[in-house]
Write a structure and sequence with these properties.
The chain is of the alpha+beta class and 380 residues long. The protein has three domains: 106 residues, Helix Hairpins (Orthogonal Bundle); 156 residues, HSP40/DNAj peptide-binding domain; 86 residues, Urease metallochaperone UreE, N-terminal domain (HSP40/DNAj peptide-binding domain, Sandwich), CATH 2.60.260.20. It has nine helices and 16 strands. It has a four-stranded mixed β-sheet with strand order 1-9-10-2. The protein has a four-stranded mixed β-sheet with strand order 11-12-16-15. A two-stranded antiparallel sheet has the order 3-8. The two termini are 42 Å apart. The relative contact order is 0.12. The structure holds zinc ion (2 copies). The site of one zinc ion has 8 residues, from loops. One zinc ion (ZN) binds next to loops.
Amino acid sequence: MSTKRDYYEILGIGKSASTGEIKKAYRKVAIKHHPDKNPGDEGAAERFREATEAYEVLKDEQKRQQYDQFGHAPEGGGFGGGAGYGGAGFNVDLNDALDSFLRNFGMGGGGGGGFGDMFGGGQGAQRRGRDLQITLNISLADAAKGVTKKLKVNKQVPCDSCDGSGAAEGSKPVTCGQCNGMGRVRQVRQSLLGQMMTEVACPQCHGQGQTISNPCGNCRGTGTVRGSEMIEVKVPAGVSSGNYMELQGKGDHGDLGSSAGHLRVVFEVEESDLFERRGDDLVIDVPVSPVDLMLGTKVEVPTLNGKVALKIPAGTHSHKVFRMRGKGVTHVNRPGTGDQLVRVLAWTPEKLDKATKAKLEDVRDDLKGLVPAPGRHLYD
Ligand SMILES: [Zn+2]
Ligand SMILES: [Zn+2]
């Protein structure tokens, strides 16, 4: 389905690689293909980029687990133009990759400062809005069939007073003198590769390319304020607790019109009183009297779609499991639906009136010869 290469293959490691091994492998691949070492080589840049993407996913335990289970997120998924369901809904471009590499290996070099600002280490504008995470509780029925939920998310939103520009009314942002409006400056740094020219966000304007002489009072020049947004989440059928969707651009709005962060919606599926979920199958216990098992009967069994009649044939043993095909949870990443398993249990009434006891005494002896001797696995 996806055209992306396997993350483990990209890093040349096995599926069971430890975090340390992943880091080591990434470092090797990233250094080999780093654009500063291979100027103008687009193939190398792409290998650097994809290795960084692979590393960003595999180093994160939760993302890695999702990736192992679901593989790459479907491309161009449904919601909001870029919802990557389940799998590591994760894409990095080359700039992200360069930043990420610096973050992982470049800090502490002899560069001329400015990194703290760049990585959100302090005052002033951020490059991109923060990523947010919320938990969405859903019922088992909703998880099984999929559901659309509306959520109010508290977050940074664009400032109304200045339209997100950060500049007070009537004052215009001016082009940054340090980067001439480019938003990025080159720096010489000591790194693993030796002395390295690197492009970093301009420390003066924090990558915006503009500075503000007269900041907006409402947002103190940041262009964003605290607010909330109603967000519609289309929960795919078949999710389990811990599955998540990443909604691109639905996190905090970035300062001064920079792009918004992502919103991760983590699903928490509530326990059901009726059903035990086993993967995509649902298990329910249906107690009947021993007489019903002997004579056969018909029972009404609850399912996610209302009650369904089930015929229990005469001579059914206790604990027999009947399978109702397609009455379970929709598979999340492949076609089809799980089943509902109905476990029929002989339920022995603890209190019987005299008349009933007398009738049962009559049949007790009749049944004796029909029950086998003790042994192994008698129900199999
Ligand atoms: Zn403002
Ligand atoms: Zn600048």
